[in-house]
Specification:
Elements (H helix, E strand, L loop, with lengths): L2 H17 L18 H7 L4 H6 L13 H5 L6 E5 L5 H10 L4 E6 L2 H18 L4 E5 L12 E7 L8 H11 E14 L5 H4 L2 H5 L8 H10 L3 E8 L1 H8 L3 H9 L10 E9 L10
Parallel strand pairs: 1-2, 1-4, 2-3, 4-5
Antiparallel strand pairs: 5-7, 6-7
Length: about 280
């Protein structure tokens, strides 16, 4: 098995356990990249009560590190793609924003997560009266989505888990329509992590070890052909996770050099970008 496939399998196993509400990375919590207090985390990163009221029970597993739905400023009728959709948390919130004329597609590589999300669809329909969401099994490096078919790509604390991040950014550009938008919340590094943290399976599944430097994220977006890139580092998420004493984050902090804080290394990064569109006169 290749290194990339080994990493994917570790992540798939970890998130399957979360979907089944089973074992955790480093202690008795239901979330590896988040907190056991999912509602508090969602409020901390900007989700309001009206949005959360739409979400079926169990879809919010505390796996967020930002609010890409709010960042995307979604409009009625748009087609939205969520990379690493998990139990459907952001998909359901986005579905209410785009309305009956829009569509939201969630893609996840973990069968347990896809099954969980699909079970949540009926509750979403009952709460909203909408039938505009779907979930597809697939890898974010090879999206099961047609070229130029999506208005907006969102993702929440997932791209850092990929062993081939440049390919993920190329795939985002491929599926976007000209003029389409990217709104991503992810973890990024302010400085390289110590080797013992990078090697820890707990850190990998918890989204920390796979993170790259902020400037690398910008470079990958540019290389994929995206423009109008705006990076907004946010320290609140990591600070909150450390203060809540989440088991995964506690394990990572304990592996850092003496006296170091996690937020000296890791930040929640909001990324907005645009796929250049054709000019109105047909010049390209």
């Amino acid at each position: 098995m290749s290194l990339d496939e080994t990493i994917r399998e570790k992540v798939r196993e970890g998130y399957a356990a979360i979907a089944r509400q089973g074992g955790a990375c480093c202690g008795p919590t239901k979330s590896c990249c988040g907190t056991s207090d999912a509602a508090a985390l969602a409020a901390n990163v900007g989700y309001d009560e009206a949005d959360l009221a739409i979400v079926p029970e169990g879809a919010n597993m505390g796996l967020s590190c930002g609010n890409p739905v709010a960042m995307a400023s979604l409009k009625p009728g748009e087609v939205v793609l969520d990379l690493g959709s998990g139990g459907g948390f952001d998909v359901f919130i986005a579905g209410a924003k785009v309305g009956a004329g829009g569509r939201v597609i969630g893609v996840d590589m973990t069968p347990d997560m896809i099954a969980k999300a699909r079970r949540n669809v009926e509750a979403y329909r009952e709460r909203t009266g909408l039938d505009n969401v779907e979930f597809r099994l697939g890898e974010i490096e090879h999206l099961p989505v047609a070229d130029g078919s999506v208005d907006v790509v969102i993702s929440n604390c997932v791209i850092n888990l990929s062993p081939d991040k440049p390919q993920v950014w190329r795939e985002m550009a491929r599926v976007l329509k000209p003029g389409g938008r990217v709104a991503v919340s992810d973890l990024a590094l302010l400085q390289p992590l110590p080797g013992n943290v990078v090697e820890a399976v707990e850190a990998l599944i918890g989204c920390v070890a796979g993170a790259v430097l902020v400037r690398e994220t910008e470079r990958m977006a540019v290389d994929a052909g995206l423009s109008d890139i705006v990076l907004d580092p946010k320290a609140d998420y990591v600070e909150a996770m450390t203060s809540w004493n989440d088991p995964l984050f506690r394990c990572v902090v304990e592996a850092l050099p003496g006296g170091s804080k996690l937020n000296e290394y890791v930040v929640s990064l909001a990324v907005n970008a645009v796929k250049p569109g054709r000019c109105c006169c047909g010049c390209g």
